[in-house]
Amino acid sequence: MIYMDNAATSWPKPPEVIHAVVRCMKKYGANPGRSGHRMAVQAGQILLYAREMLCELFNLRDPFQIIFTYNCTDALNLAIKGSVLPGDHVITTSMEHNAVVRPLKELEKQGLELTIVPASPDGVVDPNDIRKAIKPNTRLIVTTHASNVTGTIMPVEEIGKIARSHGIPYLVDAAQTAGVLPIDLSKLPIDMLAFPGHKGLLGPQGTGGLYIYPGTKLRHIREGGTGSQSESLFQPDILPDKYESGTMNTPGISGLGAAVKEILKHGQRKIYFHEKRLGKFFWEALSQLKKIKLYGPADPFMRTGIISINIGNKDSSEVCNLLDERYRIAVRGGLHCAPLAHKTIGTFCQGTIRFSYGFFNSLDEIKYCIRALEEISRE
Amino acid sequence: MIYMDNAATSWPKPPEVIHAVVRCMKKYGANPGRSGHRMAVQAGQILLYAREMLCELFNLRDPFQIIFTYNCTDALNLAIKGSVLPGDHVITTSMEHNAVVRPLKELEKQGLELTIVPASPDGVVDPNDIRKAIKPNTRLIVTTHASNVTGTIMPVEEIGKIARSHGIPYLVDAAQTAGVLPIDLSKLPIDMLAFPGHKGLLGPQGTGGLYIYPGTKLRHIREGGTGSQSESLFQPDILPDKYESGTMNTPGISGLGAAVKEILKHGQRKIYFHEKRLGKFFWEALSQLKKIKLYGPADPFMRTGIISINIGNKDSSEVCNLLDERYRIAVRGGLHCAPLAHKTIGTFCQGTIRFSYGFFNSLDEIKYCIRALEEISRE
Q1: How many angstroms separate the CA atoms of B342 and B352, rounded?
Q2: Which of A174, A179, A254, B201 holds its CA 20 to 30 A away from the CA of A202?
């Protein structure tokens, strides 16, 4: 199996990740932050360790700026619904995943005002268009860090500066970039950054989180036991407990901590340039093939590890089935839960065939994919 | 280590559970319900298998009546916030965990009307008190199935009948009972049942779910990508997708499926009577010790696998520390995130020392705990 679906979930996981999950379940299987016995304390330390690893990756000091959530979608729901109220105005882009669009459209029914800034056909958003969309009641700007359809990287620094200069919180959806692109949160003007644990960060599914810039006003949206202020009938106001109710996915977070440690061990630079090399080769080869339509920016430094294509007018899902059945290549077709992005790049009905490669893919695998596409496009 | 903290998280996990988690991460590590390639399809089958196992346990037919959530708290937040609106009236009890109380108190700030029906000092709620609390605007009754402080089992069938006869949805918090008490959802008059995966069900942390009776009106509270109706900017109305946004904890749910299979293999009856035997012996021995105060009902059939005690006026957390340090017994002291329950049983400041035993505890371990308590109570 040639796995090219890393934009959905990265695979395989480093052995250290699986080992950490197993060790946690076997040795530290108690409830973190609840009881005071040693196994519960050790479980709590696992959560802290993972926060510290993430702090090192994102260049942060305070581990409690990182909140753990069920997944990136859960983090985005918290960040969006905890920030705005009916009557507020939110700006987003036409390149967003439904994890951003659907919560916003739901709030729109309840009186939220929403502006969706259109991107160019290769998925690039002009920061000036964001600036022009600002209104007196704009209370949140939310953009993806990189499109999950084309891989197009957004100008988050420029957008963040505009947001800061207007005193508007800026939320970034790092579903496609955390672990893959260097993200320095001590420098970037970002107020909240939602990330999944199981994509570029190489951790297990069932993990994700939200970075919260100190002082960001954010209401909790899930209340419950936190193991702290047990005497109170109200959610505690301390971090991270304010946003972390109920038992955390300790084994998963243990795996996430080990995964980020692996990234730090290899160095983000190495992972980054490996993907760029694959992306450059892949794109250049495909652009030689007649019937292949390529989407997104040609420059691999303007893209994450995604190449979205079509073969003439062939149905994208059918080509994906063929790639799976005949070539054992795992990719994703269709609309990738991002209908607005497909409208933007002109593939709304056809969808695209999305190859998403990662740290564990080789150049030989890319060459094999090219040969497969060559054969299919000749048929 | 004598592990007596199963009411927080059960431990150890059956080897089959850990094996299922590892196998999922290694072999079926793709994203379920998203792409169409074989690994993604296999991942989707893992979710279905776990739903089917839960259906067998709860005597249900349709696997999509089971929704997976982050944890039981997440399920309770969905069930509560998806059911009521400001101006509605909700009835609950004084034995609830903060996972029920805190969301309700939060909604109370926004105009929800709340009645907390008091229980007797051993934690028993009279169904007639629930009936008397019903108002024309009562839109939800929510009770625990068993207290996490005293183990007291609630008369859910009687309460459910009252709720049904008034057309009011009934939500049960099965945090302490799922997997431990037989629950026949084809017969019980329950509209929603929230459960954790990592307690009596013997699965990994980061899993939980909500059973939803067909036709129950429940709004979604977390929107995002579902892999279905990708073209729509709105949350799909189909089950289970309506309530399952973002990537599920597939490895955890794989472990949960294997865990429930183990329960079914051993038979719930066997687990149930094992716990009753331990509980009867434990209670009778402790009731002979002078300084020991026991809480909750004496009859083991009126309790889950919990015995909450105090030694004179000793601070409960300090005794727990002693049990951990000197005897390597893992228990939980304090208020157990259930302040109202401690007010009900008269232990609000002192808390209780909670022993929660499970399927993997032996009578010898219980005897060891008794000896330890004997020693401490003599000091």
Answers
A1: 8
A2: B201
User: Which amino acid belongs to residue A260?
Assistant: V
For residues A224 and A245, give the distance between their C-alpha atoms in angstroms, rounded to a whole number.
5
Hunting for tokens 């893209």 — which residue is that? A303
Count other Cβ atoms within 10 Å, centred on residue A76: 32
Which residue in the block uniquely carries the two structure tokens 């696992």? A46
ipTM of the complex: 0.97
Interface test with A, best of B205, B210, B322, B323 (most A CBs within 10 A): B205
Q: Please name the residue of chain B whose CA is at the shortest distance from the CA of residue A255.
A: B25
Name the residue among B259, B276, B346, B297 with its Cα closest to residue B9.
B259
Question: Across the interface, do A198 and B231 touch by the CB < 8 Å criterion?
Answer: no
Q: Rounded CA gap, A236 and A226, in Å?
A: 8
Contact B64/A at CB under 8 A: no
Q: For chain B, which residues make up each domain, given as ranges?
A: 2-10+267-378, 15-266
Q: How big is the A-B interface in CB pairs under 8 Å?
A: 321
Residue B314 CA to residue B295 CA, distance in Å, equals: 15
Which residues of chain B neighbour A202 with C-beta distances below 8 Å? none
Interface of A with B in 90-119 (CB under 8 A): 97-99, 101-103, 105-106
Rg of chain B taking only CA atoms, in angstroms? 21
pLDDT at A307: 98
CA–CA gap between residue B300 and residue B275 (Å, rounded):
9
Among A1, A4, A17, A25, the residue to mutate for chain B (most B Cβ within 10 A):
A25
Q: Which of A67, A201, A245, A350 to mutate to test the interface with B (most CBs of B within 10 A)?
A: A245
Give pLDDT tens digits for B200-242.
999 999 999 999 999 999 999 999 999 899 999 999 999 999 9
Which of the following CATH numbers is that of domain A15-266: 3.40.640.10, 3.40.367.20, 3.40.50.2300, 3.30.430.20?
3.40.640.10
Per-residue pLDDT tens for B66-120? 999 999 999 999 999 999 999 999 999 999 999 999 999 999 999 999 999 999 9
User: Is A2-10+267-378 assigned to CATH 3.20.20.80?
Assistant: no
Q: Residues A37, A25: contact at Cβ < 8 Å?
A: no
The residues that bridge with B141 in the sheet, in sequence order, are B91, B170
- Residue B205 forms contact with A (CB below 8 Å): yes
Q: What is the least distance, in Å, from the CA of B87 to any CA of chain A?
A: 17
Q: Does B180 touch chain A (CB under 8 A)?
A: no
Q: Which of residues 9-28 of B touch A (CB under 8 A)?
A: 9, 11-13, 17-18, 21-22, 25-26
CB contact under 8 A, B22 and A17: no
**B 76-95 near A (Cβ less than 8 A):** 76-77
Q: Which of A17, A74, A247 sits opposite B246 (nearest CB)?
A: A74
